[in-house]
Amino acid sequence: TDETVGPASGPAAAYATAAPGSPLVVLERVNKHFGSLHVLQDIDLTVARGEVVVVIGPSGSGKSTLCRAINRLEPIDSGSITVDGKELPEEGKALAQLRAEVGMVFQQFNLFAHKSILENVTLGPIKVKGVRPAEAKEQAMALLERVGVANQAEKYPAQLSGGQQQRVAIARALAMQPKVMLFDEPTSALDPEMINEVLDVMTSLAREGMTMIVVTHEMGFARRAANRVVFMDAGQVVEENAPEEFFGAPRSDRAKDFLSKLL
Ligand code: ADP
Ligand code: MG
Of 12, 110, 118, 247, which is the most buried if we count CB atoms within 10 A? Predict the structure, then answer.
């Protein structure tokens, strides 16, 4: 199990030791509308280096939009978002570099269907970071090993199970050596028996000190791995707290209502 992973090993180690606890992702008064829908309302959120923040909330509350805004897949109307002290660039090469710093794993695996598993992982480092192919391959194989799919490296995504594909998606994001990893419901599209193999990889990353923002309905993961739970409803951060406090004694009626429906 992931209990064997030490605190300072693996791909997250470099970031874990760089000023743990200092702010890494900072959102200030972030607003976003889709037409008349105010989907993000004055969101303030600071994620510290090495912190694991689990975002939960009802469907439609703005969780995916929040993730996409952090990665600038979705422009915001007002407010600011910084990653490691830098504003998000609008476009161009600077944006590609920033996206490399923010790894993202989606509900749908989003692998390149016409590329092998190995190519899926090496492509970004070669194209965006200018890593030499031989080196990219070596790093990719180590990451695939780490997520338990190294023996599938020559196959194509459709030949893998959903759980394997999602672990490849994690390896692909890690290959860019991100400062923070965003996960948007990474296990929601998986068959139940594959959920844990993905959550185990995520739990070991968390234990290594990777900074993570995780949207999930897996409350067991939240209790086990989160430093903080952020509860969103209708475009607002309604409540945030340590998992034991949040699950044990939610303060807001909206959080109580949400949690009661999960049981
Ligand atoms: P969650 O991930 O919490 O389910 P989302 O961030 O996906 O919520 O969506 C928040 C709200 O914004 C929903 O009402 C959704 O229908 C709406 N929405 C999301 N994306 C778009 C879009 N591209 N255009 C219009 N409305 C959108
Ligand atoms: Mg969503």
Answer: 12
State if residue 36 touches ligand 1 by the CB under 6 angstroms criterion.
no
| Cβ atoms of 190 and 169 closer than 8 Å | no
**CA 8 to ligand 2 centroid distance, Å:** 32
The CA 118 to ligand 2 mean position distance, Å, reads: 28
Other CB atoms closer than 10 Å to residue 224's CB: what's the count?
17
Strand-strand pairing, 52-56 and 78-83: unpaired
d(CA 164, CA 45): 32
- Pocket test of ligand 1: the residue of 32, 36, 37 to mutate, having most ligand atoms within 8 Å of its CB, is 37
Q: Is 211 in the pocket of ligand 1 (CB under 6 A)?
A: no
